[in-house]
Amino acid sequence: MEATQNEHNRQESSPDPNAQTLSKNAQKKLLKQQKFEAKKAEKKALIKEQKQRAAERKRKEWKEKLAVLTEDERRELIDSRKELRRERMEKRSEERGEKFQRLTKAKESGQNIVVDLEFSHLMTHSEIHSLVQQIMYCYAVNGRCSFPAHLWLTGCQGEMETQLQRLPGFDKWIIEKEKQSYIQAFSDQKDNLVYLTADSETVLDELDPTKVYIIGGLVDRNRWKGITMKKAEEQGILTAKLPIGTYMKMSTSQVLTVNQVIEILLKFLEIRDWKASFFQVIPQRKRSEADLENCQEVDGEECKEENEESERKKKCIEVISHDKKSS
């Protein structure tokens, strides 16, 4: 028994053989990532448990409510609840129909926006998963827009394609899914391709409906600084950057996530105001203190707190979830 315990202890204390081949810096990043994943899983389990408790509490309250009613009152209350549920389902069905019409129209005449997925080989499994979640959020936000864009996923292969295909309902998305690169997909429109990158010297003043705007699908760009600019220059296509510096100061770099860039573009398509678009989308943690003090001046709108941003994402994901269940 003691020998078995000692062997177990040696196994736990011995380093991962794969980690030994990594540099110290890489090992630290790996350990940090593993801790993050463990904490994320723990948080997910806690949220699931809280939802189960809430559902159980509601069921208990419903039973208690019915128990004190007469037979006629119970029947009336149950019928009323069924009618409310029916109306809610009809409303969702109507909203799905309107969403389908908007996205179909955007496919014909909307602004083309591409997410370049040819960088998946440079990302870890968790980073690819993060990008997939961003893409899912982008599709949800686009579907809710009054003037949606037509989204493209190019270079969709390998693990990236596998993870996207796991999303329930992904095959029904009104979005272009291309295994080939954007250069091949738009071979007859190369002059209209514009790669959006913070490294460009050209500032984007307006969105041209004839242009195809490309966003690099890459998580943790700090490891690959300048990679999208270099790629665009090698391919001989135009580049541009969002006019963030004109309207606000960033506390960090001007590199944004894929979903933030797309949401800014979608907001601009709707209100044609860069300043308002930036302040409504870019999280407070990325802005300087001066901008945080003045952010309420944009169109009279108050700053969005980061928890509001999370709530907005949650609502968008819930919209997709409802669509999947009823499809």
What would you say this structure looks like, in words?
- With 327 residues, the protein is α/β, with parallel strands linked by helices.
- It contains 13 helices and six strands.
- Helices cover 59% and strands 7% of the residues.
- A six-stranded parallel sheet has the order 3-2-1-5-4-6, with helices on both faces.
- Strand 1 (112-116), helix 5 (125-144) and strand 2 (150-154) form a beta-alpha-beta unit.
- The radius of gyration is 24 Å and the shape is globular.
- Mean pLDDT is 82; it is low at 4-19 and 292-310.
Which secondary structure elements does this structure contain, and how are they paired or packed?
Layout: H1 2-13, H2 17-20, H3 24-67, H4 71-109, E1 112-116, H5 125-144, E2 150-154, H6 158-165, E3 176-177, H7 182-185, E4 193-196, E5 212-216, H8 227-235, E6 238-240, H9 244-247, H10 258-271, H11 274-281, H12 289-294, H13 306-326
Parallel strand pairs: 1-2, 1-5, 2-3, 4-5, 4-6
Helix pairs in contact: 5-6, 5-10, 5-13, 10-11
How would you characterize the largest beta sheet? 6 strands, parallel
Assembly context of the chains: single chain
Report the portion of residues in β strands: 5-15%
**Shape descriptor:** globular
Rg over CA atoms, rounded to whole Å, is 24 Å
Structural class comes to alpha/beta
Order of helices and strands: HHHHEHEHEHEEHEHHHHH
Total strands: the figure is 6
Kindly, what is the distance between the CA atoms of the first and last residues, rounded to a whole number of angstroms? 56 Å
Poorly predicted ranges (pLDDT <50, ≥5 residues)?
Answer: 4-19, 292-310
Q: Strand arrangement, largest sheet?
A: 3-2-1-5-4-6
Number of helices: 13
Helix coverage percent: 55-70%
- Overall average residue pLDDT: 82
